[in-house]
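2 proteins. here.
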Amino acid sequence: MSDIGRYNTLKVRRIASKGAYLHDDNNGEREILLPARLVPRGTAVGSELTVFVYLNNEGLITATTVKPLAQVGEFAYLKIVSVNDTGAFLSWGLAKDLLLPYSEVPQNLKPHLEPGKSILVRVFQDEHERIAASARLADFLDNEAHTYREGDAVVIIVDGPTDLGQRVIVDHRYWGLIHNNEIFRPLHKGEKLNGYIKTVRQDGKLNIALQAPGRAKIDDIAQGILNTLAKHGGFMAVSDKSPPEQIYQLFGVSKKVFKQALGSLYKERFIVIEKDGIRSIDKS
């Protein structure tokens, strides 16, 4: 059967007034309805559509072209829209809110389940194929990740501060840590951003950096400086002596990294450093 709670690419078997009926590749007799209001213009029998498959309010398998904020197996920071005796209902981009059952909420978080607040959860599928949320994050994450190498690009979600830095979720599968000396701007719970493997410790735990390590980092930042210079007409009143706050505001990096990238650009004659700032050199 199609993966409930995930994106599926399915073929249109027939089109009727209710919408497009999609062929479930793993269940030849079953059709999955994509409601008429969601059928893309130009769709015909035989067309392939990428849709999100879920159970609607009647418990029937259905499809949508609306993208939820997370699919099964992913974490997301979702807003609570209502609370009842069953649990909390979360807004996740679909018309049907996502249930966070009380059984999936750690005891210390239950008093904080209030409409308007947000909570970091994992989307999962229960034993009845229903899609639900869990705030028991540790049940779905591993502390050991020996398959990564230094410099690997990853997607991270911020969980919150620790004494050493910020704990993050790495690629929806592992715990990781960004040490305080790697953080150059405020990070917010639930924030999703790109990161890099700084080190894989002997115990398998991951240390994460927000900027690519080594030469790759310098090249990436250097190109960003050139792009920003171009947007400002080729000159900016900033230099390696500018305040760290100004550098971060303009380029999103620490002063140390900025100076390294600036030195690389100067050495390779992409810029000149003038009394009042930096200017790009036209290489054309």
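next one coming up
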Amino acid sequence: MSLNPPTQYRTESNLRARQRLWEYQRPPLDLVEWVLGLIGLRSGSAANVLDVGCGNGLYLRRLHSYGIKAVGCDLSGGMLAATARSLEDVDLVNGDVTALPFDSASFDVVLAPHMLYHVDDRRTAALELRRVLRPGGHCVAVTNGVDHMRSLRALVEQAVRQVTPGWVMRDPSTEAFSLENGAEQLGIAFSQVACVRAEGVASVELDDAAIAADYVASTADHYQPQTARPWAEVVEDVRESVQQIIDQFGVFVVRGVTGAFVCT
């Protein structure tokens, strides 16, 4: 499986499908606020921030509202275009985390939110994140744990195994770079790496099966090469299974397991 198929982030549609699911968390976790709070980034901060893998600008919009100087960097031109549409007067750079187009020691804070698991050469990426960080600065890398979204993943596996016995949905965020193995990977570049898990986080409670189906559909280019079953059929099976659970229990519950590494 490619960790970052070229079609995945050509536009923001796949990312938005996944973001929408988390809008059903009750009560919601303000993940951006939680991440920024780990290093005390608040309104009026004088920190100079780099958001690597900025996506459609989730973190940049909050930083902008705080009056914090921030630069967004992403490999996808489609993601940068989406950010530019939603946020004026923001510095955006098209760049690869394994060869960041910035001088050494340029930023007080470097954010890598839910992106390192898309990178094949994470050793070089970690070294680059460290290179552009000023002495005394902080890098925050956000990812998930092995139990992240297990209930939905189980339904996807059930659907795929009708054609591909024993298939496992190997999510890069729970395997390639996760809360369980990320510290060692970052430790090659940073002297201190602290893993902080978001505790007491509410589950997502879906009463609309289409939200789960759209999430699964957004991952087609990751997983379709692993099975002969058309991904659209997998998506429909998952939608039907989620609907059955909603009909029986009122909601379909998805539990997120998220955290961050604070590196110096």
